[in-house]
Amino acid sequence: MPKRVAVIGAGASGLIAIKSCLDEGLEPVCLEKGTDIGGLWKYHDDVRDGHGSVFSTTIINTSKEIMAFSDFPPPKEFPNYMHNTYVMKYFRLYAEHFGLRKYIMFKIQVNSVKPSADYDATGKWDVEYTDKEKDTSKTETFDAVLVCTGHHVDPHVAKFPGQEDFQGRIIHTHDYKKSKGYDDKRIMVIGIGNSGADAAVELARVGSQVFLSTRRGSWVMSRVGENGVPLDIFAVRRIFDLVPMSWKASFAERTLNQRFNHANYGLRPKHSVVQQHPTVNDGLPNEILSGRVKVKANVKRFLKTSVHFKDGKVEEDIDEVIMATGYTFGFPFVDESVIKVTNNEVTMYKYVFPPHMKHGTLAVIGVVQAPGALNPKSELQCRWATRVSKVLQSYLLKKP
Fold this sequence. Notes:
With about 400 residues, the chain is of the alpha/beta class. It has two domains: about 5-155 and about 325-400, FAD/NAD(P)-binding domain (3-Layer(bba) Sandwich), CATH 3.50.50; about 165-325, FAD/NAD(P)-binding domain. The chain contains nine helices and 18 strands. Helix 1 runs parallel beside helix 9.
């Protein structure tokens, strides 16, 4: 009888987790709290607590060749950098091709995951969940668990002095969907990650003025590389592993500054390009050059209608503030004796397994923060985790 594996979440990582279970002869049971596959790539107009969603205009930051699953490339007619609607089409094609949907239960809220009473002997887990459609709860025992819930769900809203007195609207990029309603507004975007830069560029086309506040700047990469080839196809090559990190950093920074001098644009960070995630955005230099986006220092405090910055400058008559200040990740449904997140940090063996647990039958997929696309990383993690689970369960069954 196949060993049953609970896969929590049906986003990109959850889909490859189901596929990897089937490849190893395991029986996946995917528990998805939403109504569809795709995770945050499933766009929805409304704001939903506990559900991340891309902007209506979001395009992937990595080319389709780099973000593809190893055994199912996106169709050749799909663009190299896919709009979120194409990403969803790709996920649907992937799920259909490998017959994954029949293993997914939708509208399922996972309440708790904890070791079974006989965990020491069997490595099994008790998963308690609620079927929101039927309004019923139950607990099932699984041989293994793959946690695929991602880390773009719970927004981290930064706090600044005087923020509660500000009379304009303050939202997080988690709640931002499209530029409608921001016409002729003076808008402050705080944070220069990918979401912050995307929001600033998009709003610059409708707002009267956009300000982009950043604590430390960022290296900004274009999607388009030499001769019009996607940049990451050139950059992600094994031969570069032979080059010392300092040389790679120096070459990359020189290349990025040839496109536009980051210091002249107020964006040059103190950190090296290999020490933090770069920002991928084609339009930001143009909007700064045209004056529609003005780069500002980190925020010092808010007043009723103005924002003061740490360099002593002030901007008056701010109508809207959008916080692009990241997310707080965690696994509240997993027993704290298994995974404990403190100040957005967690200790995991190879970013996958809780290191102190006796058996490697619970794995966290897709939380690793490394350059490049998530899908291939999640695939490798899933292939590893399911193989470990299969071998371990066979070993436990044979134990006297």
